[in-house]
Design a protein that fits this description.
Chain lengths: 294, 397
Amino acid sequence: MAILIDEHSRVLVQGITGREGALHAARMRAAGTDLVAGVSPGKGGQTVEGAPVFDAVAPAVAATGADVAVLFVPARFARDAMLEAADAGIRLVVCVTEGIPVRDMAEVTAHLSRRGCALVGPNGPGLITPRRCSAGIMPADVFAPGAVGLISRSGTLTYEVVHELTQAGIGQSTVVGMGGDPIHGVGFLECLELFEADDETEAVVLIGEIGGNDEERAAEYVREHVSRPVVAYIAGFGAPPGKRMGHAGAIVEGSSGTAAEKKAALEAAGIPVASAPADVVPLLQAQLETRRSS
Amino acid sequence: MDLLEHRGKSLFAGAGLPVLASRLALSPEEAQAAAGELGLPVVVKAQAKTGGRGKAGGIRVCATEVEVASATADILAMTIRGHGVSCVLVEEAVEIARELYLAISSSRAQRGPLLIFSAEGGVDIEEVARRHPAALVRTPVDPLLGLCDYQVRDVVAAAALDPELAGPDGTPAKQSLGGVVRSLWRLYRDSDATLCEINPLVITTFGEVVCLDSKVTIDDNALYRHAELKAESDAGAEDREARARKAGLAFVALDGDIGVLGNGAGLVMSIIDQIAAAGGSAADFCDLGGGARAEVVAAALDVILSTGTVSALLVSIFGGITRCDEVARGLVQVLGQSSVDVPVVVRLDGNAAFEGRAVLAEARLPGLTVAASAAEAVRLAVAAAASPAGPDTRRED
């Protein structure tokens, strides 16, 4: 089953005739994705990576039954592209783009939620269900199919942790990069709910960082609603207040959003927090063993 | 982009928000002249991008021109919470009857704007929430519907103004307050702000509603829609962080002595944490982003090493899409040519890591060590920083 995407997902790429769009369309296809269409206004009629290109999303959906849209669109056009996808009946929009204005994201998330359309991103690597579907820019070689679900606010840190998991023989059900912007689509809570209901997922890894209180809310949610073992890693203990650490959303504001606060909240909810990315593996193994022997 | 008070107030004035007459002054003489134009008494206010100006003595009421000149000289010499003061705002003085608080800010939890009003200004909002909840309004503004009339009425009701109170022109204070709320929302939306705060918003003894301070933050990602503000942002930026930004790097200066360079914000933060856990201290946060062109690597090293206080450099790359051998070639090109005289520890993992390590080994750069893992890289860099005369250094003294 996995969550959000699997081998039945029919993926459409917006901006497929651009350099990034074409490159990642090819990579997604190589990772097992059923790439059914591309969209680039004014470029309809071409074929990229075996997929027919349309001028707009609605006719592409009508012709191909696409239900997932992955955007490779510059920041100033991303708002419109996401609205177009949602209005065309797309079920899941994945936005990789960095640097989208906050006002645009507030409008987009409000509109998409009214349409019942889910969003992953922006400013993130997308998501992958190993060997079955990749929607975004995650390097498929690092991943292996398995039973651990992972949700993260950071791209390369995700690859780093997944690399350790794969090396240790621990495969993944679905890995979701929620993106580093303050206003984004699905987050820890939504994914935890989906993983909890997923037969294939046995345990969940959360990768957080400074800024906001998503991790604190996740801790509370896990305490009340999640029976699967959960482990976490948090980055940014050394971040000074008031500075954006690369991601627009990675900022300690006043005394809130610190890594120490997040670690304490997670541990208070019984979620072990790794002290380095590589330490996620032994923590997870211990959790899984406890669970299997009980 | 945080705006200084005077710049925020010029946006306020343009949006029809009530502000007092004021002049910007760069010297005691200019301040004196401004006071002459405005009429005494005036308030001289330090312009610095930080709170706590009042407590630091950066806001003074002056009754004579001599006081204006001396207050301005004092304030221009101040550093408030690490921020220098480049100019002062000379503003009309008013008699305050009541202080209120009004702000609209971008809320992560609400995924949109949040309007906050308190009928008690100058105190902690959380405290008002506990002690006197009826005096507080906290209401999310729908990004698509905008501010609704009922939300404006809620604010006016919470303010509990005397219904008879009116300004000198006969405008009821309740009406003026409602107008301020609507104008602030329009300004917030139209200028792509992530924060518009008026603290305090005052009722004068003459029944006028006035914005006594402004705190405005504009979304950096939206500056392309606001050419005038963008020009100001580019003009003022000359520090290391600005230089890094121009090169496409995310950079934050830290207090330690181990330079850090990596790809990905989370990964770099993680390395900084691991350095601290191993007893060292990072000198910076520097994210190369995706790709690894030699000129970007060169720009990053230039910014990181420009303080002269870095005693070791740690480069940590996890190749996802980025190929480690390309990064390695970039490093060899830059380190081979430049005068980097501190020990460098490089860790490469992920995509083409094996090839990347081979590129570094072949180049035989003195002072460069290739670590087998992130943990080893951290250990080596901390050790190298602790003993700058160790075997891995290029220093000849």
